[in-house]
């Protein structure tokens, strides 16, 4: 979800993507950078991403990922369900304010 | 989903991931360098931050995998590598399996064609055979119908869409090249309708074409092609059959065979021919001429039981109206039509399938043995795989994959073998086993052999897999060398015992069939088959009425006798070995009984020289002479079996019986038995000779007799002169069914010969495989004990003691196998005895012979490894490690 959201803003290559996620989460999420790649492959396979080889401004050969329409749709679904879940968690944490009790 | 293109893109994907990870780490390292690290430290740090590079790469790759298939492919590749490394093992295993699966496939293709395949007509499961049930003479048995009976069943039918009668005949076709005699059927009009067969040209018969004045015929496809150049306008053409003009109304389709098991029949005509046939009374009106077969197509939803009860009520009513004619056949017999085609062959064919199944079991045991030995050798390899993380289940699965690839290879080779063999097998008994010639390796047969491949995989890899699952996989790594040959040896030993037991079952079964067959071959048929030739002549219809054929017949016989080398010639019907063609009941003067309780036996019509020509000896009284004609005293000659059966312990000469056969100018009533002759077999396979009585032809001038000629010269030369003789008398009379009697006998024995040869071949294969199995087990045991044997010899053991040691082991295996097998063999032989025609060999002798053969083969197989053990060089054996 994070990967998709990040890529929705702009297409990136693996390293940049890892840095971007780290930065945008304000270093709260310390993930092993390696674990990114199996996830990317899974999303490639499911057709949510597309990848192509490119050359970076620093002259390095990089593989740039961009989100597809299917990926965007999936992201929307994921985000809304995640938000619903968060809402649920908040209700539970806030105790009495759950809708049933009101 | 789209995993197939993905498989091909795999390399690219793998490379992409690897490049990408590499690039990631480099970029990170570059960043660390920019922060002031040295490049090597930066690379290390970058890798640390990244995590497990290899694992990440693998996990990324695995995303793309379709795991089960991929692993299977990997296993298969691995298996292929294994077998390339051990080609002798692979070849031995595949050859063994090919033999087993090939033999099974070939036999199954026979079973499929003969027993399983339905009749080739739409909704063939609704076709049933109809007969009357004859309660005379012991157990009720199906009997043919008479026309009045058939007409009654048809008129009052409520259960069939159609009910059709048919009977064998032959018609002489002239005016289309050389006169030929063509097997034909006389049928009721709705034959094609009942079978739902559309003619390829013209139409089927119409109901009004059963009238005596009609001359219509349907041609077989082959006849149409061969004799009428596939003339598309054949319908409506007039052709000459039995020298009468017949109108062709249609042509049957190419594969049409009716009767179901007789593709030779190429002409069908209506029962009109029988309505105008007879001398005194048309056959269609005779209650006593029980010559008709019948079949029907049940209406949808009607069961055989319901059909039977309806037909039974008709038969019972007939019996009530005319008890003399129908008293003994007051009920009916209905079976699925396919059963009447398969007849008695179902059991022998299934027994053969069972036998060949045993061969497969033996083959499996052999391969299991090979595999066990191989698994033991590969224990270290498995242990290494286990120690670097392969699960036990994974290793067992690998083993099964390897086995399965063996089985598939064996199965492919086996199918090729079966394709090569099946025609040879079919030729062995063509004609004596219905539909055998249709045997081929088709889709169901292929499915069967694939199923066999699965089954054999399970069977032969079960033992090695169990062993793998049981043993401690790590221990072989610690041990220096082969440690536990003992446990494997026990397993292999058990398999060999099973093989020996199964082999004994097959051997003794084959022995039983072979002894029965030799008995059939050598037993006295009661007449002399050598130098004897029989043939038939197609007579024009006008000569078949009354006594019109007699002058023709005596002219033929006179000319035959004048041929060089011919010692005598006669006419008769039916000839010996022709089967039970004419059964007629008779009344005994001393013990008269009502028409429906009279005794019945075979009968034949003969000319006076018949007994001399065929070689049947006179035992009492006299033979027929030329003076035994329509005007003299009515007489009969009987055979010894007849005298013993109906007049046991009495003097049969002078007894009088009345068979009631009638014809023009024939004195009916009691006939005196004037002679007793030896038993000539009517049926080559019967256990005991059949009772038969003979009429002098002139006292019952039924048409038409077959001819028998005895020559002291060459039989083939005689054949062409016979054609010339008949052509001189009447160029349009076809000569047919010309066979040396030796050939008739050989043909009559073809079914038992087929069974004997096949079972013999299976037993031979079984023996070979068992011997190879025993050899393999002993050889492996000797090999894995080379060191121990070397030490023994080094310590002073006598080589002959070593030899004895190995032979003792073989002896224990063989004796246990025989002990177990003897029980199975007894059961197997009880089963086989149900299909055996005649046997005179006691069970114990058979079993003993089979054991001796087995022991000889086993000794030969055991001697090779035993001698090798005895000649082990201690120095080399100890240096082996």
Could you characterize the architecture of this molecule?
The complex is a heterodimer of chains A (102) and B (881). Chain A has 102 residues and is an alpha+beta fold. Chain A has one domain (2-101): Winged helix-like DNA-binding domain superfamily/Winged helix DNA-binding domain (Arc Repressor Mutant, subunit A, Orthogonal Bundle), CATH 1.10.10. Chain A has four helices and three strands. Chain A has helices at residues 2-9, 14-24, 36-46, 69-93, and strands at residues 12-13, 49-55, 61-67. Chain A has a three-stranded antiparallel β-sheet with strand order 1-3-2. In chain A, a hairpin with a 5-residue loop joins β2 and β3. Chain A is globular. Chain A starts with a helix and ends in a 9-residue tail after the last helix. Residues 98-102 of chain A have low confidence and may be disordered. Chain B has five domains: 3-65; 69-121 and 344-479, no CATH class; 136-329, no CATH class; 480-524 and 747-881, no CATH class; 539-733, no CATH class. Mean pLDDT of chain B is 85; it is low at 480-486. In chain B, strands 12, 13, 14, 15, 16, 17, 18, 19, 20, 21, 22 and 23 form a twelve-stranded mixed β-sheet that branches. Chain B is built from 28 helices and 23 strands. In chain B, α4 (67-85) packs across α15, α5 crosses α15 (392-428) and α19 (549-562) crosses α22. Chain B is an alpha+beta fold. The chains are: A alpha+beta (102), B alpha+beta (881). Chain A binds chain B through residues 13-15, 18, 32-35, 37-38, 40-42, 44-45, 51, 53, 58, 60-63, and chain B through 13, 16-17, 19-21, 23-24, 26-28, 30, 49-53, 55-57, 59-64.
